[in-house]
Design goal:
The protein is α/β, with parallel strands linked by helices. The protein is built from 6 helices and 7 strands. Strands 3-2-1-4-5-6-7 form a 7-stranded mixed β-sheet, covered by helices on one side. The protein is globular, with a radius of gyration of 16 Å. The site of 5-O-phosphono-beta-D-ribofuranosylamine has 14 residues, from α1 and β5.
C-alpha cells in the first residue's frame, strides 16, 4: 500500500480526483493518509474532512526559516508514515531535507506544457493568461517529479489542450483542468506505483 500525502493550497479539485480514483478502485494500491495545506481556508481541507482524511496546516510564513519549515513537514511525513507526496496546487517551495528524503517520490501537477509558461510566479491563472497573450495555440498540463527549482524535475506525463480563438484565461483554465489535469494526475500516480512496487 502506498501511503500518500497530498499537499494543497486552494480548491482541491485535483485532490478530489485522486480521492475519486481511489474510491473507484482505479488506484488500488493507494491511501491518502494526510492532506497538508499551506492555507487554513483552502476548500481542499473540507474535501479531505468529508472523507475522514487527517489534515495538517503548515504555512511557510509561520516559520522563521526554511529549515524549521522543512523540519515541520518532515515531522508530519514521519507521523503518518508517508511513502509518497503529491503536490496538487501547493504553492510553496519545499526544503532540501524533504526533497532529499523523498527523492523522486514527490510529484507536482502544473497547468502548462513544461518548459513553457512555468517557473517562479507561474501559478493560478497566470500560465493561462500568459499563454493567450503570447498567442500560443496549444497549452496543457504536466506532471513531473519535484526537484529543487520551481517546476523542475523529470516529466512523467503531459497532455495538450487547444487554445481557442475566444478563450479567456478563465475558460482556458477550466478546460485545462477538465481535459488534462484531472486525467493526468491519477494516471501518473498509477504509472508510478506500477514502477515502484
Ligand atoms: C491546478 O491548476 C494545478 O495544476 C496547479 O494549481 C491548481 C490547483 O487546483 N498546480 P486545485 O486546487 O486542485 O483545484
Amino acid at each position: 500500500m502506498f501511503r500518500i500525502a497530498v499537499m494543497v493550497s486552494g480548491n482541491g479539485t485535483n485532490l478530489q480526483t485522486i480521492i475519486n480514483k481511489i474510491e473507484e478502485g482505479y488506484l488500488k494500491k493507494a491511501k491518502i493518509v494526510v492532506v497538508i495545506s499551506s492555507n487554513k481556508k483552502a476548500y481542499a481541507l473540507q474535501r479531505a474532512e468529508k472523507y475522514g482524511i487527517p489534515i495538517e496546516i503548515k504555512n511557510r510564513k509561520d516559520f522563521d526559516s526554511m529549515e524549521e519549515y522543512d523540519d515541520a513537514l518532515q515531522k508530519i511525513t514521519n507521523i503518518y508514515k508517508v511513502d509518497f507526496i503529491v503536490l496538487a496546487g501547493f504553492l510553496s517551495l519545499l526544503g532540501e531535507g524533504l526533497l532529499d528524503k523523498y527523492y523522486n517520490k514527490i510529484i507536482n501537477i502544473h497547468p502548462s506544457l513544461i518548459p513553457s509558461f512555468c517557473g517562479q510566479g507561474f501559478y493560478g491563472i497566470i500560465p493561462h493568461r500568459t499563454a493567450i497573450e503570447y498567442g500560443a495555440k496549444i497549452t496543457g498540463a504536466t506532471v513531473h517529479f519535484v526537484w529543487k527549482e520551481y517546476d523542475s524535475g523529470p516529466i512523467i506525463l503531459q497532455k495538450s489542450v487547444e487554445i481557442m480563438e475566444n478563450d479567456t484565461p478563465e475558460t482556458l483554465q477550466e478546460r485545462v483542468m477538465e481535459e488534462a489535469e484531472w486525467q493526468l494526475l491519477p494516471k501518473s500516480n498509477k504509472t508510478i506505483y506500477g514502477r515502484q512496487t
